[in-house]
Design goal:
The protein is of the alpha+beta class. It contains 18 helices and 12 strands. Helix 11 packs across helix 15. The N and C termini lie far apart (about 80 Å).
């Protein structure tokens, strides 16, 4: 180690002396910091063909290229297919490889380049994501093209995927919260594709031929959205997309199943019961209320976000956590959140508690979800909610692919073109009167459906209009 010189000691002495003799802040008082500037990323849109939308956001931070393809071939576009088919297809597609590199051979070659692949399914789409190093672009293009155009949907991949999905179905009732939300979804979307829980019986009826037919009749005929980010030149995108994507074979499905706010509200009101008990022997119960709300692009969206934060979406700052858990010690967790879709939303309010305190929590949640609560919200609480939500706004723009996913969702939901640019102003413009108004319409207890997951013995016997079912029974 080098010894400190006399010059070093002199510098330290002078520095310390300056710090002692100077007023706090003098050392940096003349330094001018530039104002923080925020620029909205510019997502570029094009169409490879009338049924293929391309969204592009360049990002040269790393020598990596990423593409995500949404094939709109899910059950909402094709309601006659069993819901298990897109689920098992996605996993089989990933495991099956290609005709020239079947099964693990494809994975070995793809991963040898340090590349990543995922295949997922949703109610409306099959989503395939590729990510690779730019220096292996030539090799990666060929592999991607083969994967999309010549998948190997064989017996081995099918059997593995079927077994995996079968085990998930058999074990889905082990978590009481997952059970409660699954049954809540069945209630909210009764008679709709989203209300169909997966079934072992329908799964057993599928075969490898089912996968091939689904690829040919649904995936190959569907419209697509292509999200591209990474180290790209915009000029090369058109050729790349045309090179890797299979041609659309037929006319894509253009409309999906009606799940409008009006349709879902009508279905929920038609139920002859307002309390559903999912009878399951368990030491922890879940009390869950749900209601139907407006579409994502509805003007009430901003006020709903803020009232939700105050009621249950703000963690330990929310009424649910402070009044149910902190004050009463009745909850393991207590929260609320809205799920916004293109033509409706579903609002969930849930608390996980001990079996013995189920009805006390049920009543307390109802008291919180009342006009009295909405009327007593203070300007300070509203201001804190606005600040918390706006503080999170910047995190929408920290990842290029997430930016593209959000942009795609906004376009699918017909959001205004200036949605992000006006978001902060719209949040800031919400008033206490807005919260009181939308509280009466969407949050009030008498407008919500109630569900209790746990042993029936923990529920009050005189609950009005109640039905009891088991975890695997259909919602009546």
């Amino acid at each position: 180690m080098k010894k400190a010189t006399n010059k070093t000691y002199l510098f330290i002495l002078l520095f310390v002396s300056y710090g002692i003799l100077s007023a706090p802040g003098d050392f940096v008082k003349d330094i001018k910091l530039p104002e923080l500037e925020f620029h909205f990323p510019e997502v570029k849109e094009s169409f490879a063909d009338p049924n293929t939308r391309v969204l592009f956001l360049p990002n040269s931070e790393f020598p990596v290229r990423t593409i995500e393809i949404h094939f709109y071939s899910g059950s909402e576009y094709y309601p006659n297919i069993p819901p298990e088919l897109p689920e098992i297809f996605a996993e089989s597609w990933k495991k099956g490889g290609t005709r020239s590199l079947p099964g693990e051979k494809f994975a070995e070659v793809w991963e040898s380049y340090g590349s990543k692949l995922s295949v997922d399914s949703d109610f409306d789409s099959i989503v395939v994501t590729f990510s690779w190093l730019s220096k292996y672009d030539k090799e990666s293009r060929k592999l991607i093209s083969d994967f999309l155009k010549e998948p190997e949907l064989g017996q081995e991949a099918f059997e593995f995927s079927k077994l995996q999905l079968s085990e998930q179905i058999k074990r889905r009732n082990e978590n009481i919260s997952s059970l409660a939300y699954r049954k809540a979804r069945e209630v909210a979307y009764k008679g709709k594709v989203r209300g169909n829980s997966l079934s072992i019986r329908r799964l057993d009826a599928l075969s490898p031929e089912s996968l091939s037919s689904f690829y040919k009749d649904n995936v190959r005929k569907s419209s697509r959205a292509v999200l591209i980010t990474g180290e790209w030149n915009e000029s090369e995108l058109s050729e790349f997309v045309g090179e890797i994507l299979p041609k659309i074979d037929g006319k894509p499905a253009s409309e999906f199943q009606d799940s409008s706010q009006e349709a879902l509200e009508k279905s929920l009101k038609s139920l002859e019961y307002k309390n559903l008990i999912i009878d399951k022997d368990n030491t922890q119960n879940v009390v869950l209320f749900l209601g139907i709300g407006p579409s994502h692009n509805h003007p009430d969206f901003f006020a709903i976000q803020l009232l939700n934060y105050i009621i249950g979406g703000g963690g330990f700052n929310s009424y649910f956590m402070s009044k149910i858990r902190s004050d009463k010690g009745l909850a393991y967790s207590s929260s609320s959140y809205p799920m916004f879709e293109s033509d409706h939303s579903v609002l969930y309010f849930a608390t996980q508690t001990k079996a013995a305190s189920t009805m006390e929590v049920y009543d307390l949640m109802g008291e919180i979800l009342s006009d009295e609560t909405f009327s007593n919200i203070s300007e300070e609480e509203l201001r804190d909610a606005k600040e918390a939500i706006l503080n999170k706004f910047i995190f929408l723009f920290t990842d290029s692919m997430e930016i593209l996913k959000n942009e795609l969702r906004f376009r699918e939901h017909d959001m205004p073109k200036d949605y992000l640019r006006t978001y902060r102003d719209k949040i800031l413009s919400v008033s206490l009167n807005d919260l009181r108004r939308i509280g009466k319409v969407y949050f009030r207890r008498d407008r919500l459906f109630a569900l209790i997951a746990g042993p029936q013995s923990s529920s009050r016997k005189n609950l009005p209009t109640v039905k009891k079912i088991g975890p695997e029974d259909s919602v009546p």
